[in-house]
Amino acid sequence: MMIYLDNAATTKPCAECVRAVASAMENTFGNASSMHDMGTASIEVISRAKRTLLNAVTGTGKPFDGEVIFTSGATESNNTALAGLNLRSGKIVTTSIEHPSQARVVDKLEASGHEVVRLSPKDFDDFEGAVANAVDNNTALVSCMAVNNETGFCIDVERLYKAVKAKNPRTVVHIDAVQGFLKVPLDADLISVSGHKIHASKGIGALYIKKGVVLSPLILGGGQQNKMRSGTEPVELIAGFEAAVNAYDYKRGMFEDLKSLLVNEVSKISGVRFNSDDKCLPNIVNFSVAGVRSEIMLHSLEEAGIYISNGSACSKGKTSGVLKAFGVSDKDADCALRVSFCADNTADEVQMLVKKLAETVKRVRR
Q1: Is the pTM of this model over 0.85?
Q2: What's the chain's average pLDDT?
Q3: Final residue of a structural domain among 247, 266, 282
Q4: CA 10, 148, 72 angle in degrees (round to 5)?
Q5: Three-state secondary-structure class, residue 165
Q6: 3-state SS class at 147
Q7: Which residues carry out catalysis?
Q8: Phi, psi (degrees; rounded to nearest 5) at 96
Q9: Structural domain tally of the chain?
Q10: Which among 84, 93, 138, 184 has most CB atoms closer than 10 A?
Q11: Amino acid 24: pLDDT
């Protein structure tokens, strides 16, 4: 039996997504640029999906005031949002907890001459206020996560967006909403999302662009998607993405119960430190088990058919540098584990995880 508790890395495609992808492959496989009925049918699938996403992204029932372009995923969305702005001058305010697909672009902008301010949650009780306070008349861009992928730390981006615009209406706000999409209310000038975090397939994401924001495309060619993202649209993946959006239900109460159970049971193991606090969404729980390196624990759990992670899947097993920004020591980061839930997970699975954790701790610490 497999117990999969690594949903922040990727989720299993839901049945609705699988059916929609298969149906599009069989019935609407035409090129959306073709001047015939099959092309028109594909355009209709894409247009419907765009309307669905525009209505879903804010989480408030109010449609997003702008457009959406489909991308290959969050990395492309983040790169398009940040590199596409063509910033020639001005300060950039960001955080020390960002995903590499955002952080590496900011590093490049810094190398080109931009002043970059990076803030860490450990240094501020009011993190949204601290980010907004760093904005001045010279600030061109604010870019940050809605929800951190390693700890679940949640930023009130609605409040942040209003505060930034009050300080400087010209400042562009970009939000990486990969972990926050369909889980928390969102608002920004640019919002990046990914399909495979909400039970759609890999290889499909989106970038929301608020009305009035001007971007230059990163991918040039045939001019698809209003010349913002050239290349033949993957109609099948877009259909699956829409189906997953319609089917997704963030069961916060259930996740709170699972997190509470996990915290209570894992706390019985000596030397455990929790790196996810009350400011974090309940579907992601990060903790460190002293004396047992993450890699050893992960292999031990894998042998029992239990799958969790030690942080961002993109770090490929490397010790997290992001945890430092939350005040986690290098020693504890080397022992950090991340459990991330989806609606299919159960209390019995949590109990089995904890049992195997305890067994491994006893064996390794001997």
Answers
A1: yes
A2: 95
A3: 247
A4: 45
A5: helix
A6: strand
A7: 314
A8: -95, 10
A9: 2
A10: 93
A11: 97
